[in-house]
Amino acid sequence: MSEVRLEELLAPGVAADDVPELAPLLAARALLSAFSTLFHGSEAEVLMRLLVLREIGRESESPRWSPEQLRQRFAFLDTVKLETVLRRLRGNGLLDIGEDSHYALSDLGRNAVAAVGMLVSFSAEDDLELGFLTAQLAGLQAVGSVTPEALGHLLGKLNDLAWHFEEAIASGSEFRIADARRKLSANTRWIERGTEVLHQLLADPEVPFDLARVAQRIGLAQSRLARVDAAFQRALNKIEAQRVTLGGSGISSSDVAGWLRRLDARALAALAADGGLLPAPELTLLAGGHELLDRAELALSDEARQIEADIALPPAEEAPSRNQPEQEDLRLLQHFSQRLARLAKDGSEPASLARMVAGGGFPAASYRLSLLALLADGGGEGGATPADGPIGEFMRLPLDVLFEATTVKVGEDEIAAMSTGLVGARGSLPAAEAVPVLDATETLPDEA
Hints:
Arc Repressor Mutant, subunit A; three-stranded antiparallel β-sheet
């Protein structure tokens, strides 16, 4: 059969140069040709080429092989088939042959063997795809050549895992959830390793925007996977609550389902043919002696029938009331009121806002400063106050508060600076300075 040309696969009127997605593949034709050489033909032929190429590349101390050494190393292969494989690998640039007729891996062949070897090393693990992609990304990060395409492959795998786990939870199947949980556990170390790579990547302030954008989306996908294990546990708890135990045997419905899942199709067919799988058990008697006595008592006793037939609601009752409702914690307010009350005594000097407000950190100081604004509402005509209790007592304190337009540096107790002002007995503070109001046409002077 003749080889199909690329132009024959494209739509009429479309050239290969018109498809930008083909450009990187066409630029890597030599590499792709190497993989085409390896994987063209039957499975047996592919295995033969990979075997010969890997064994030649495995000898790192003496990487050059004479024809006689190759025949001795591959004595288990047919000599003619071996020569055919060597000729094909040499003709497609995967093997080099020197003037002394010694074989060695070419640069292209060694790269191909390394790529295949890395995939083979991950093939025995449950986390084949995510482990390979994470290891590839870590290698690219180490040499500073991370690409958006490499990050996109990792993001796609993480989203695929999240979809798989969500499907398992939605199915309600204990076995699918258990399998998904094992898969998550197998991939946990690669998720953690991927997180480390992302931290190193985003720590660079000059990382390109397209890389940072995909890396942030990978971080969100990893966060979703980190929360999946709790969702698995909740789903398993619901299944556990619905599990049925078969009599006093200790065998649950999950045990029966697991046993059936381990049977092959032939065993299931034989079990069905023997009558072991029926929609409902064929039992001639569905009630024992205790059940019959219960039904007989109901039929013979008028009192029992009346109790069963009585569907009236119980009499209404008043809802219990709480004698002591919850009270707001006003200890800080009361303590502040006691401190301010000392300023209202005769002969007491006014105190600065900084001295009265500071103490206990920024939250407490901010709370005290907001309380001083309440003093402007207290002490109305006739002693009326807008509140009773500790708040009302605070508002009735005979104090004045003066806020000035300037600030004073504090530098302690989590306070850098605060407004200048005084707190003192009513009538003991100086009058506040009038703040000039600018006309609409006036402007502020420029600061030096």
